[in-house]
């Protein structure tokens, strides 16, 4: 999917790591909430409150998921799940665009 139709967009960006990671919250017509974001090259650690699905739309990054001992590579067109109440790390190799979906 290259676009979402009939959405509301939060005009204020979420800005993390001194602007190296940014996202905007969107709400789909059915009430589903997602964020659309961009990560610049670097290494970052994130925490989750609920289960998340991270869909990589372009770019390249390595991910260390909770409980894993090895980094996994992801590129545009791939996705990974992160459990609720967890911490995970990413090493962004090139500018990466993503869509994050949340599951309560």
UniProtKB/TrEMBL annotation:
Keywords: Glycosyltransferase, Transferase
Keyword Transferase: yes
Enzymatic class: transferase
Reactions that this protein is recorded to catalyse: guanosine + phosphate = alpha-D-ribose 1-phosphate + guanine; thymidine + phosphate = 2-deoxy-alpha-D-ribose 1-phosphate + thymine; uridine + phosphate = alpha-D-ribose 1-phosphate + uracil; adenosine + phosphate = alpha-D-ribose 1-phosphate + adenine
DNA damage in keyword set: no
EC number: 2.4.2.1, 2.4.2.2
Matching Pfam families: Ppnp
Entries under CDD domains matching the protein: cupin_PpnP-like
GO molecular function: guanosine phosphorylase activity; purine-nucleoside phosphorylase activity; thymidine phosphorylase activity; uridine phosphorylase activity
General function of this protein: Catalyzes the phosphorolysis of diverse nucleosides, yielding D-ribose 1-phosphate and the respective free bases. Can use uridine, adenosine, guanosine, cytidine, thymidine, inosine and xanthosine as substrates. Also catalyzes the reverse reactions.
HAMAP family cross-referenced by the UniProt entry: Nucleos_phosphorylase_PpnP (MF_01537)
Protein name: Pyrimidine/purine nucleoside phosphorylase
Top-level taxonomy: Bacteria, Pseudomonadati, Pseudomonadota, Gammaproteobacteria, Cellvibrionales
